[in-house]
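Hello everyone,

My group is preparing for a crystallization screen and wants a predicted model to guide construct design. The compound we'll soak is 2-acetamido-2-deoxy-beta-D-glucopyranose. Before spending weeks at the bench, it would help to have a computed complex in hand. I've included the protein sequence and the ligand's SMILES below. Output in C-alpha cell form would be ideal because that's what our pipeline reads.
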Amino acid sequence: MWLSLLLSLVVAWWLPLAAPEPASPSGATGGQLRRLWLQDHCHAGICTNVQIGRSDYVILSQAPIPNQLMLTFINSSIAKIPHLLFDTFPDLQMLRMENCSLETFEKPQFEGASNLMSLFLGLNRLKDIPKNIFLGADNLATLHLHGNQLKHLSNHSLHALKELKELSLADNIIEQLPLGLFGGMRKLMDLNLAGNRLAALPRGIFDKNLNVTRINLARNRFTAFESELLKLQPRLSLLDISGNIIQELTLNFSLLELAVAHSCDLRRLTVYGIVRELDLHNNSLRELPHIPQAVNVTSLDLSQNPLGNLQGNPLRRFTALLRLNLSTTNAHELPEGLLKKQTSLQMLDISGNSMYSLKITLFDSLKALQYFYFQQNNWNCDFLQLLMSSFVKRKDLSFMEDITAPELVDDYVDGIACWYESDKTSKKCDASSSDAALELSVVRNEIKAFTEVVEKKFIKVYRMLEEMKMKL
Ligand SMILES: *[C@@H]1O[C@H](CO)[C@@H](O)[C@H](O)[C@H]1NC(C)=O
Ligand SMILES: *[C@@H]1O[C@H](CO)[C@@H](O)[C@H](O)[C@H]1NC(C)=O
Ligand SMILES: *[C@@H]1O[C@H](CO)[C@@H](O)[C@H](O)[C@H]1NC(C)=O
Ligand SMILES: *[C@@H]1O[C@H](CO)[C@@H](O)[C@H](O)[C@H]1NC(C)=O
Ligand SMILES: *[C@@H]1O[C@H](CO)[C@@H](O)[C@H](O)[C@H]1NC(C)=O
Ligand SMILES: *[C@@H]1O[C@H](CO)[C@@H](O)[C@H](O)[C@H]1NC(C)=O
Ligand SMILES: *[C@@H]1O[C@H](CO)[C@@H](O)[C@H](O)[C@H]1NC(C)=O
Ligand SMILES: *[C@@H]1O[C@H](CO)[C@@H](O)[C@H](O)[C@H]1NC(C)=O
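Reply:
Good plan to model first. Here are the C-alpha cells for the complex, ready for your pipeline.
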C-alpha cells in the first residue's frame, strides 16, 4: 500500500513533466523508472511486445484497471513480473507469462494477488523460488513452472499455496525435494515432476497430500519403485514413471486408470490392484506382465519389447481388452488361440514383426475389431490375399500401408508388402513351413542389410567412375 501511494506520487510528479524519454534512475538499483501503459499493449487480455529489463521499474497505469480477469503475454521479454501488476489489475484470475525470458521473482511479488487462481510461468529462466514468495497468492489453484532452471527448492518455496490443486515443476534440474515442500498443499491433486534429476523422495514427503490423483515422475533418475508413492494409494489414478531405469517393478494401487512405464528397461512387472491402461512400450520384457486382475485391463501396449513368439495362451484373462499393441516384439507367429477371449478388442497392432503366415482362424473371435495394423512384416503374398479378402476387407477394418522400398518387395496387396515363396519344398510340408518362413525372413533381413551396404558402396564407386570420366 505504501508503495503504491508512493508511486502515485511519483506518477503525479512525473506526468506534468511529461518527459518523453523515460530515463529517471530509480534508487540504488540504478535501473530505469519508466511508464509502460499496459493498456497500449494489451487487447482482449492478450499483451504483445512488452519489454521489461531486470532493473527497470515500470508504472503500468495511472489508475487500477478493474474487471480484467486474464492476461496472456506473447512475444514479450519480461525479466521480472512488474511489482504493481496486481495493484493495476486487482481482479486478475489468470496470468500467462510463458516463454517471456522471466529471470527472477521480486519481493513482494504477489501482494494483492488474492484473486489469482492460475499462474503459468513455464519455459522461462527462473533459477530459484525465494522463500515465501507466494505470500498473497493464497487462492492459487494452478501453478506451472516447467521448463525453467530451478535447482534447489526449500521448505518454504511454495509456502502459502494451500489451495493449490495442480503443480508442475517438470523439466527443471531439481535433484532433491525438501521434505516440507508440499506440506501445506492438502488439496494437491496433480503433481508433475517429470524431467528432473530426482533419484529418491524423502520419506514422508506426501504425508499431507492424500488427495493426489495424478503424479508424473518420468525422465528422472529413479532406479527402484519409490515406496513413498504407496502412500498415495487411496486416490492415485495416473502414474507415469517412464524413462527411469527400473528393471523389476511391482505396483499395488487400488485403481490406476493409467500406468505409464515405457522406456524403463523393464524385465519383470507385477501389478496388483486394478489397472485399466498400461503403456509398457520400449522395455525389455520377455514375458507378459503378471496382473492377477487382468480382467479389468482395457489397453495394453507391449510394443518394442523382445517378447518373441508368445507361448501358450497368455492373454486368456485379459477379457476386456479394447486396445492391444504387439508391434515390434520380434514375433514370427502368433499361437492359434491367442485372441480367443478378445471379443471386445477394437484395435490390434502386430506391425513391425517377422510374420509370414498365420492361421486365419486366429481372428475369428475379434468381433469388435475396427483397427488392424499389420504392415512391415514378411507376409507371404498368398496368405496376405486371404487375410485381406476373408477378414480385413470383409469387416471393413482400417489398416496402414507399407513403406518398404519397392526394390525389396515381390508384390503389394492393397499397399502391404509381401513375398512369394521361392522355395517350393517348404510348401509341401506344413510342419516345416514356419521354420522355412523363419529362415526366409532371416535371410531376407540379411539381404536387406547387405544390399543397403552394397548400394552405398556402389554409389561411391559410381561417383569415382564419374570423376575419372571427367578427368579423361
Ligand atoms: C518462445 O519465444 C521465442 C521468441 O519470442 C520464439 O521464437 C519461440 O518459438 C517461443 N518458444 C515456444 C516454445 O513458444
Ligand atoms: C509473435 O511473433 C511471431 C514471430 O515474430 C509472429 O509471427 C507472431 O505474429 C507474433 N504474435 C503476435 C500476437 O504478435
Ligand atoms: C522442512 O520441513 C520438514 C517437515 O515439515 C521438517 O521436518 C524439516 O526439518 C524442515 N527442514 C528445514 C531445513 O527447515
Ligand atoms: C482433500 O481435499 C479436501 C478439499 O478438497 C480437503 O477437505 C481434505 O482434507 C483433503 N483430504 C486430505 C486427506 O488431505
Ligand atoms: C496391496 O495393497 C493392499 C492394500 O494396501 C494390501 O492389502 C495387499 O496385501 C497388497 N498386495 C500385495 C500382493 O502386496
Ligand atoms: C528406449 O528405452 C531406453 C531405456 O531402456 C532409452 O535409453 C531409449 O532412449 C528409449 N528409446 C526411445 C525411442 O524412447
Ligand atoms: C473388474 O472386472 C470385474 C469383472 O468384469 C467387474 O466385476 C468389476 O466391477 C471390475 N472392477 C472395476 C473397478 O472396474
Ligand atoms: C503401437 O506401438 C508402436 C511402437 O511403439 C507405435 O508406433 C504405434 O503407433 C502403436 N500403434 C497404435 C495403433 O497406437
